[in-house]
């Protein structure tokens, strides 16, 4: 009779391992496999299972929709604040510094509706070149290769 070569781990060890990789002070999977002695394959299986169980995956964060008045309110509230107070305001509003800079700029330039460059770059592919590249990339010989291998 042949023995099953797979080692069985306790549920508590699995839960601690998943928590250490996915938790707030997460360690890398490589670090955990080295310290606990669990193979990378086993740890990956535990993580896949944990993500498939209801409630284990964090909810998707919804991007807040800001009205124009709300944007202006935050921009005006941020004016003249020192770094500590500005940081507290940004955390309270759930904003990053870059978002505040963008909101300040948009408030100062409401008529600006730029969407990128109007002219294509000098090195852009022509329609014929683009078609040829796509045909090569989708050909049976190149279909399964990475872009690096195709070029």
Model description:
The structure is a single chain. This protein has 151 residues and is an all-alpha fold. It is built from eight helices and no strands. Helix 1 (11-22) crosses helix 3 and helix 4 packs across helix 6 (97-108).
* Proportion in helices: 40-55%
Biggest sheet descriptor:
none
Instruction: Give start-end ranges of low-pLDDT stretches.
Output: 1-5
End-to-end distance? 53 Å
Average the pLDDT over all residues and give the rounded result.
Answer: 76
Q: Strand share of the residues?
A: under 5%
Order of helices and strands: HHHHHHHH
Number of helices: 8
Shape summary: flat
Short description:
This protein has 151 residues and is mainly alpha-helical.
Can you lay out the helices and strands and say which pair or pack?
Elements: H1 11-22, H2 29-36, H3 40-52, H4 68-78, H5 83-93, H6 97-108, H7 127-137, H8 147-150
Helix pairs in contact: 1-3, 4-6
Task: Considering the chains and any ligands shown, give keywords for the structure.
single chain; 151 residues; mainly alpha; 8 helices; 54% helix
């Amino acid at each position: 009779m042949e023995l099953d070569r797979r080692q069985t781990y306790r549920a508590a060890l699995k839960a601690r391992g998943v928590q250490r990789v996915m938790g707030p002070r997460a360690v890398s999977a490589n670090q955990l496999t080295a310290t606990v002695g669990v193979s990378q394959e086993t740890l990956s299986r535990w993580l896949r299972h944990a993500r498939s169980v209801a409630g284990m995956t964090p909810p998707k964060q919804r991007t807040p929709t800001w009205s124009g008045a709300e944007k202006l309110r935050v921009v005006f509230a941020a004016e003249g604040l020192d770094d500590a107070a500005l940081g507290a305001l940004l955390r309270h509003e759930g904003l990053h510094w870059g978002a505040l800079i963008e909101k300040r700029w948009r408030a100062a330039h409401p008529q600006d509706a730029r969407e990128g460059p109007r002219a294509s770059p000098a090195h852009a592919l022509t329609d014929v070149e683009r078609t040829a590249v796509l045909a090569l990339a989708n050909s049976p010989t190149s279909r399964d290769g990475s872009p690096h291998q195709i070029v």
